[in-house]
Design goal:
- By secondary structure, the protein is α/β, with parallel strands linked by helices.
- Helices cover 40% and strands 18% of the residues.
- The chain has 16 helices and 16 strands.
- The protein has helices spanning 22-32, 50-53, 73-94, 111-122, 134-141, 146-159, 170-180, 200-211, 266-281, 300-308, 326-333, 351-358, 387-398, 408-422, 426-433, 435-438, and strands spanning 8-17, 36-43, 58-62, 100-105, 125-130, 164-167, 185-186, 228-231, 235-238, 243-245, 251-256, 289-294, 315-318, 336-339, 363-366, 381-384.
- Helix 5 (134-141) packs antiparallel against helix 6, helix 8 (200-211) packs across helix 11 and helix 9 crosses helix 13.
């Protein structure tokens, strides 16, 4: 808001699914709560946050998706780029003139190009939010492709011409400056308020609700015992209203994935294979595991078939899509998180770990260049190089679960570090770091 009290206009562009772009949704929510009206442009395959949908300060502009056409890869990429550029340009011409455009990157093409051209004509500022590099994602499957090389040049050229930028790590900030002379402020992802610890009673209600569709959450026996009114696989509710954990309950392991090539899900499957063997050999020391993998993406069906072929007896793996309000609650109800994101550039950090930490959940994360900016091995989680290290971490965590006295001190120390992390939320961090730049 200007000093004279007038509301300012902003535009936020996501050339992807708005509902699966949490950081940009948090930007929009924060802007709308701090004196800006926001035109939010993107695709809507998943519903955006309710606070955004219902905000009088936010207008969502849905882009039309590119039609499915049987074309050679290069032609398809070319036509899709033209389609997206025209759709984005037409939408930009219809909105209120913004003080600035905040553009998510990746994807850089054509979003950052169209946004730059528009800002030149409208005399608005272009601010790029660097989550990763477009060219590094393309290079996973086509490292020597002309498309990858062109993308890198365009990303560098237009990124350097933005008036300012945000990035997600100090490592990326240094690389942007050294490689492309891009000026960016580090805006670390922090958990919003809905990602927090919850009570045992709330966990019980969640398990009951999820158990309606996911058999792994249901109690093995019925609630016929005197004094018991409800049972789940993890909790019991008594007639006096008390809720307690089941004494010999399964371990609850959770991971979230977009099912893309930058997350090797086979690592977790191999680790679970190893846990299954250890569980079979020492059933008295290792509990059954319920493993929940949330998210949507192109490789989901491939791995669903791989998991279906497994003959695990001590592991139950489910792949549900959770509602927005259930996802943070399930994180807060889990015993251990797993993150398979290894970063195509080595310079970004997985937001799913931020969410897990916000819920007080320790995480096992793939080790890569800058992961130490978020996960500190042995303090708030663990890092691993391969499936064997992951299997070792899972088996150590769940040894004699849930009453392993030898692990009590370590788990309490981890909770202390996680509570420190929980103390700084997105809204406060955004207001201190980002708002002054938007108000320039």
């Amino acid at each position: 808001m200007k000093p004279d009290g007038k509301v300012q206009n902003a535009c936020v562009i996501v050339l992807g699914d708005i509902g699966r772009s949490p950081r940009m949704q948090y930007h929009v929510k924060s802007l709308s709560e701090n004196g800006f009206t926001v035109d939010f442009i993107g695709y809507i395959s998943s519903p955006p946050l309710e606070e955004i949908r219902s905000s009088p300060n936010v207008r969502i502009h849905e882009l039309n998706p590119f039609p499915e056409l049987e074309l050679p890869t290069i032609l398809k990429y070319l036509f899709k780029t033209i389609w997206q550029a025209l759709g984005l340009l037409i939408t930009l011409m219809s909105i209120r003139k913004p003080k600035f455009i905040l553009c998510q990157n990746p994807p850089a093409i054509p979003a950052i190009i169209v946004a730059y051209m528009y800002c030149l004509l409208a005399r608005s500022r272009l601010i790029v939010d660097w989550h990763n590099y477009t060219y590094s994602i393309l290079a996973i499957e086509s490292p020597n492709s002309p498309v990858t090389k062109i993308a890198k040049k365009l990303e560098a050229f237009f990124g350097a011409r933005a008036s300012h930028g945000f990035c997600v790590t100090k490592a990326m900030q240094e690389d942007l400056k050294a490689s492309w002379n891009v000026r960016a402020t580090v805006l670390y992802d922090r958990p919003p308020q809905q990602f927090q610890s919850i009570s045992l009673e709330e966990k019980h209600k969640l398990f009951l609700r999820l158990g309606e569709n996911i058999s792994a959450f249901r109690a093995v026996t019925s609630a016929a015992d005197i004094g018991i009114v409800e049972r789940t696989a993890f909790t019991t509710k008594y007639s006096n209203g008390d809720v307690k954990y089941v004494e010999k309950r399964p371990g609850l392991l959770i991971s979230s994935t977009s099912w893309t090539p930058d997350e090797d899900f086979s690592t977790l499957i191999s680790a679970l294979d190893q846990y299954e063997r250890m569980c079979s050999e020492n059933p008295a020391h290792y509990p059954p595991l319920v493993c929940i993998i949330t998210g949507k993406g192109p490789l989901k069906e491939k791995y669903r078939q791989i998991v279906a072929a497994k003959k695990w007896k001590r592991i139950s793996l489910e792949m549900p899509w959770l509602e927005n309000e259930d996802y943070p609650k399930l994180l807060a109800s889990s015993d251990l998180g797993v993150c398979l994101h290894y970063s195509s550039s080595g310079l970004d950090l997985p937001m799913k770990v931020v969410d897990m930490f916000g819920c007080g959940l320790p995480v096992c994360a793939v080790d890569f260049q800058c992961i130490a900016e978020l996960v500190r091995h042995g303090e708030n989680g663990f890092v691993f190089q391969d499936h064997q290290e992951l299997a070792e971490q899972i088996s150590n965590w769940f040894y004699d679960f849930p009453n392993n006295i030898a692990l009590t001190n370590m788990k309490q120390e981890m909770q202390r570090h996680l509570k420190q992390f929980q103390s700084l939320r997105w809204a406060e961090n955004w207001k201190n770091t980002a708002l002054p730049i938007f108000n320039e």
